[in-house]
Amino acid sequence: LNESTIAWKKYYSDLSILSFDMYPYQSKFKWRERYVCLALEQSAGLAKECNQDLFIYIDAYDLVNRGYCDKMFRTHSYLLLSFGVKGIEYFQYGDASPFYDREGDWTKGSLVNWDYTKNKYWYDAQKVNAELKKLMPVYGRYENKGAYVINKKEGDNVTYMHNPYEDFGVIEDVDDSLAEATFGESPTYVVGCFEAKDGNGKAFTLVNMDELNDNSYGSDFSFPVRLKINGSKVTCYKNGEPTVMQPDADGYYSFSMPN
Known about the structure:
- A hairpin with a 2-residue loop joins strand 9 (235-238) and strand 10 (241-244).
- The strands form four sheets. A three-stranded parallel beta sheet has the order 1-2-3.
- The protein has six helices and eleven strands.
- It is an alpha+beta fold.
- The protein is globular, with a radius of gyration of 19 Å.
């Protein structure tokens, strides 16, 4: 990324937006080898340095070979928000070249067909977009400060960061003992850290980084993760809807975090 950073500063630093495409889920079985969070961390830092907004194309092609598109769109979107991304885009592939037959009909794997008709993936995207639209007024009141990882697994490249923001001070303790006792290990989470642009409030995103499966979003069972949070009022936004949370007798807040 160093050469790309130098070139961007030299030729494009006067633009208002830094944008690129990112496809971490190209393979269910190999995506953890990719340095996804590192790329987001460095890109977010470069955008801040150049006073630019960060826009990213999410993984939204070759969808006919996947069974988890609504979940993939949502997980990728919230991962991007965890690094302060201001724009989420869907790349629409279409090839009218002489090699079209050889390469296959990629449009069957995008949100819109070759004849501009909408397919089921378009509707999957609209569900996620509607949810994010509800969240945006709240998201816009906070500034991203960085991200860090909970329960990082050794050798897991996808969640590696060069300089994680571990001085956030909001999540004081994590209890994932039910998941650990049942499955042998706890899920890995990425925490996006935010501070209010006006006032002293703080906020965070919490993204389950375990491998995606073919079940539709919301159909997976998961044990709640219990967080001890340094805050007087805790509001959770899930599916775009706010819920004021109450701590248990031990001072922990419980969050359902299916992948």
